[in-house]
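Table 4 source record.
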Amino acid sequence: MKSVKFIWASVLSSVVLVAGLAACGGSSDPVLVASSDVTASLTASNGGALVDTTLSFPNGVADFGTTSTTTLSIGGSATSSTQTATISSGGKTATGDMGYGSCVFIIKTSDFAPDSALGTGKKVTVTPCEVTVTTKGIVANGGQALTKVNMTLGSTEGTGQVRVNITADGAVKVGSSSFANIILIPTTGGGS
């Protein structure tokens, strides 16, 4: 009789063990992550993604006529087709509107020299005007991640940080604004 009880106890323990293992997340769905960083030219439809972002260009911006550290702070409304820009370098500041079709800066106020590229009333068009958001390895779960952004203005590159989220269908949002789409790949270990 003892051997029958032992056999039943062994069978019952095995059933409980298998059921417990199955309940511990035996999901076969892979975790999806961004396959690469995403680069896009700034346009009226995605430029609002950079609202509330400040980018630093350590060697200046040739098209602005600056040669020392230059910052570009982008403001305004994320849903507008134009934003505001504050450009600072060497203790001087210019403010105005930022539009697209390249990056187009219309300087409204400035304490730069009137004959400089950033003088009041000047229009500065910079081509190319591209942004690369570091997305490679970010889990596509709709959650936000703070990541690096690079902006290319002409031949000059500046950096800043943005909050990004990637949805399960590969839509990349910067802040709350749609920015681009990306290819997702499965990974193990939960991504980065």
